[in-house]
Amino acid sequence: MFFLDVQGTLISDHDKSLIHGAKELIDFLNAKNLPYLIITNNTKKLDFLEKLQQKGLAIKENAYIDP
Fold first, then answer.
1. Domains in the chain with CATH codes
2. What distance in Å separates the CA atoms of residue 49 and residue 18, rounded to the nearest whole number?
3. Whole-angstrom distance, CA of residue 51 vs CA of residue 36
4. Which of 2, 7, 16, 30 pairs as cysteine with 36 (C-beta 3.0–4.6 A)?
5. pLDDT per residue as tens digits for the range 30-63
6. Residue 31 phi/psi, 5° resolution?
C-alpha cells in the first residue's frame, strides 16, 4: 500500500500545478494495480478530487481520503 500526500507531493504548494512525475506515478500505480491512498487535509473532498482529476491525475474516488 502506498500513501501519497497531495500538496507538495502531487501538486505544488506554490501554484497548485502538477509536480513533475506525479501523473506518471498515478498512471503506473493504476496500470500495475498497486494499492494506494491519496491523503489530504483539504475538507472539500469531491471538489478537490475533481480538480486533481482535471489536472490529469487518474485518481479513483475510493483511493482518496480527507478529514
1. 2-62 (3.40.50.1000)
2. 13
3. 19
4. 2
5. 999 999 999 887 666 678 888 889 999 999 888 8
6. -65, -35
